[in-house]
């Protein structure tokens, strides 16, 4: 077996270490590095033991970046509370809910066996804007009664009593939106189950804190400063009163033209459906993990020596790129002689300044100049789902009952794929042009020369079979002695002319005197899937082409080719999982509140961001946030109707004005909690950015819409309920006048 390994251009042996399922990757790598000095001391000084690729480099940087994002989010949320309440204790009390909720969440994560990874830290970052919502609503209601002249304890008891069920409803509705994530099928559901559980636990802990610790702290420490206020306080108060006045005037106009607003609400639903089909769709955001995998595909008749030279040339080109830190490559072994593998570790993002996809695009032009072999590179992703091994990130597999049909149509489809704009690095695992040489022995001629078949087999085995003929024993080790001919005689069938076979008389007879070789073509490999022969085409996507658009183009291309019904095609791996998720994604988008969905989709389109599974989570979270705002209004309106005898119009009008400040506070807290994710540029930010963009964009538009559409929808539903009640309850019979005869 022939093989060649290179590490930064030097001959090497690559040892891959995989962690066991459930083991922490960072802890595993730290323990491996701890024993490296001991391993180096136990081997010869002429051997160098180094780390070629370390996956934890970007993992550590990503965790550090998201931890910094978490701190920024907490700071922004606390500033929102202070700006609106303008009181030190009123700011401290709800802010306590943040660390208490996070500590409680860490405890539950520990019990469930969760770890701090990108998804769980992303959930904790988003939760900073949610965990203060309940506390804000409670303290705002208590402060409102204290401003009305009530003493702290009485105001706390009354305010907590009034708002307790509302807070419970808000948290329950927000937790309920995570049920689709918990029930999501397949690998996607397994990935996001931890995210949903982490966020649900954080909200549940914040609910407990808001109904217990927050009222207690308000009763003991919260005081309303009735003295003189500074210029900043008066400025903020005047701005807030101005906002309330503008909202009051707009609300009166909305309530005057309710039918128009209802039509706008219906139009929002239609617009959401249109935007869903218009927005580019993907599965997971393209990540920059700092690692690049390469697949070298040589001519199918290439020899091991020639392929080794190609590998060295590709290795040298990649190493010269200023963004590359280390390069490891190997060829031969059980992978055959026509393919090679390469692994490149890039420098930190702050040092190289360009993404891994840009590095690949830069290297693509340089490596294309080497004849006889092609290097296909792809950026390694943390989230990959199944699929065949290939030279690119996405796969499309053709299957057929007849191998000849498969071999005919696969090259045609591959050539057409190369013409599609935005699709690069198209390659195939079809191996049908390999060279084969058959040694044909003239047995009659060999017999006349006194050569038997056993001697022929032994001679060929000695020359080309790498036969072990002896051992060399040293003090600490032993070495196998392997017999073979010189390398120059193994490069082609011509080497058989220099082989001599002993005869019965002891004379050496040249092999060419009674044998010759016949060249032919043969398949190097025939892959199968589901018992049927298959050929897999791999491809990468260029910047600007979404996976959803590529899937549609390839499906249309196959239909245009007019393949026979015996040839079937389908996506594999990540592309197949993307197709399977589209039906669930459509249902979730349709069932979202219109104002939440349309705002998020518009934000994604404006920022040229794909609607991925991460962005879909943001839209799901928007459902809970918008529902919380509606609950704040409707709960007060229902109480005003039942307890104060107000009409529905007056009740919802008063509810909108009184709940304007807490709605604005909770919305701003959630928005600023997600803003660092939307604006993040650090390591791993590609995975978090769609979530932040969807939440920020959805909140900006949903806030404007729900403040006006909610009261209108409430009034229409109230009228509908009244009509149903009158239709169900029969009218009492009217007395008829008496008639005299």
Terminal CA distance reads: 124 Å
**% residues in beta strands:** 5-15%
Give the strand line-up of the largest sheet.
Answer: 2-1-4-5-3-6
Structural class: alpha+beta
The count of helical stretches stands at: 23
Radius of gyration: 36 Å
What do we call the CATH topology of the largest domain? Multidrug efflux transporter AcrB transmembrane fold
Question: What CATH architecture of the largest domain do you see?
Answer: Up-down Bundle
Low-confidence stretches: none
For this structure, what is the CATH homologous superfamily of the largest domain? Multidrug efflux transporter AcrB transmembrane domain
CATH class of the largest domain: Mainly Alpha
Mean pLDDT: 83
The rough form would be described as elongated
Written overview of the protein:
- The protein is an alpha+beta fold.
- The chain folds into 3 domains: 1-52 and 288-380, Multidrug efflux transporter AcrB pore domain (Alpha-Beta Plaits, 2-Layer Sandwich), CATH 3.30.70; 58-278 and 592-726, Multidrug efflux transporter AcrB transmembrane fold (Up-down Bundle), CATH 1.20.1640; 434-522, Multidrug efflux transporter AcrB TolC docking domain, DN and DC subdomains (2-Layer Sandwich).
- It is built from 23 helices and 17 strands.
- The protein has helices at 25-41, 56-85, 88-95, 97-112, 118-147, 152-176, 179-182, 186-221, 231-256, 258-278, 304-320, 349-352, 356-367, 403-417, 443-448, 453-464, 547-561, 574-591, 594-606, 613-644, 648-658, 660-679, 685-728, and strands spanning 3-7, 10-11, 291-298, 324-332, 339-346, 373-379, 394-400, 423-428, 434-441, 467-473, 478-483, 500-502, 508-510, 515-522, 528-529, 532-541, 567-572.
- The strands form 5 sheets. A 6-stranded antiparallel sheet has the order 2-1-4-5-3-6.
- Strand 4 and strand 5 (339-346) form a beta hairpin.
- Helix 2 runs antiparallel to helix 3 (88-95) and helix 3 (88-95) packs antiparallel against helix 8.
- The chain is elongated, with a radius of gyration of 36 Å.
